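Handout, page 2. Input:
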Amino acid sequence: MAAFDILIADDHPLFRSALHQAVTLGLGPNVRLVEVASIAELEARLTEKSDWDLVLLDLNMPGMHGLNGLINLRNEAPTIPVVIVSAEQDKQIVLQAITYGAVGFITKSSPRAQMIEAIEQILNGNVYLPPDIIR
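Output:
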């Protein structure tokens, strides 16, 4: 498998750590992960490096109001795939996120295997939606 650079943007340290561990276990040693806790940190990382393979973005972080953070990110870094990782499970929010340019939406309640499968699909160029949303 190729090496991937993934940015985890979530203001909750415990969830960032759990996601980091899940991705490392699921995708193996060829994944380089960087964690940020705010939109300001995320923007700084995107300024330093513009070729991230994926951004895992929490919807509710300081400096982000709903989907505005996603919209701003799409404007600033249109080529970087962004996946929303959120506790939000409202079908409208999920579909809006895709409409605004997210390539996937992973609910924080997803089992680890499902999260990894979703991330693999996205890294392979596909869009991912939670199965219960598709229904």
